[in-house]
Specification:
This protein is an alpha/beta fold. The protein has helices spanning 5-8, 11-27, 47-64, 66-75, 100-104, 107-127, 140-164, 169-177, 193-198; strands spanning 28-33, 36-41, 78-81, 86-88, 95-98. It has one domain. The protein is globular.
């Protein structure tokens, strides 16, 4: 009776905290695939499908492009379902983000994207620069060129992998036709939040 009133006031907060925790853990889960953390996220991609297709992509890369697979293994700590695709240097663990549109492409394309994003992260690990540190330059044209050069390097690796894993001709042709500026979605000559927000892939 002496203690009965006060602790009750914490009950709603506990319920709320418990609910938030439960909904977060339901939306996200992770498991390890050959040493790499795979983080599913129901908000972005169906977790069962994500697990299945990423597993197939690993198998395909390991079988058809073992050197690229080894590179991915040595540089990447996590692959996660996310709202936009890309190499994510801002996590504690080097992470590849995969968005729904990338995920829904062919298995061969998805596999080649793993090699593309691995190359960005390898470049960061080799040089300490994020996308060539283009964001530090005041000369926007020079910054764009640095980013284009990095994209072309990553596309080159991706193209080789796409060919090794048996990508379709239209995918190979599409990738060959890229000029390294595909990140500049709004085509205003720079890469900024407008581009990021305009991305679905
Ligand atoms: Zn890229």
């Amino acid at each position: 009776m002496f203690f009965s009133a006060k602790p009750l006031r914490f009950v709603p907060l506990l319920i709320l905290t418990g609910f938030l925790f439960a909904s977060t853990s339901l939306a996200q889960s992770e498991f390890k695939l050959d040493g790499i953390i795979i983080e599913t996220n129901a908000k972005h991609i169906d977790p069962v499908a994500f697990k299945a297709k990423i597993t197939l992509a690993f198998e395909l890369l390991k079988t058809k492009a073992p050197n690229d697979y080894a590179t991915m293994k040595s540089f990447i700590g996590k692959i996660r379902a996310y709202q936009a695709s890309g190499a994510n240097f801002n996590e504690d663990i080097m992470t590849i983000d995969i968005a729904k549109a990338t995920f829904d492409a062919s298995l061969e394309w998805l596999t080649s994207v793993l090699a593309h994003e691995t190359t960005h992260i390898k470049k960061y690990k080799d040089t300490g620069k994020k996308f060539g540190d283009a964001h530090l330059l005041t000369d926007k044209k020079a910054a764009l060129q640095i980013m284009i050069n990095e994209e072309l390097d990553c596309n080159k690796v991706q193209l080789a992998v796409l060919e090794k894993v048996g990508g379709a001709k239209y995918e190979i042709d599409y990738l060959r036709a890229q000029k390294g500026d595909h990140f500049d979605i709004d085509k205003d000559g720079d890469y900024d939040m407008d581009d990021y927000k305009g991305r679905k892939w």
